[in-house]
Design brief:
Blueprint: H1 3-21, H2 24-30, E1 37-41, E2 46-50, H3 53-64, E3 81-82, E4 85-86
Antiparallel strand pairs: 1-2, 3-4
Helix pairs in contact: 1-2
Amino acid sequence: MDKNRLIIKDKLINYAIALDQKEWPSLENIFHQDALAEYGDESIGLLIKSSSREEIVDMCKVSLGGCGFTQHLLGNFRITVDNDNAF
């Protein structure tokens, strides 16, 4: 696995751990300040769009802050890096 894909994989793992441990400051270290994120889907009637690191972290706090234990499991990784973009 090339270096960029490995960095992204590590970020995803750290993201899941930060969510489950509710370590909100750790989330701030995962996302770029201008990060964009979409959670959910219009087809299920729930689409949350965030347009900054602060919005993403705030959304996670609101969504998970009152939850008990959570477990975000990650399986197979398919990461494509194309210049400055990753999918």
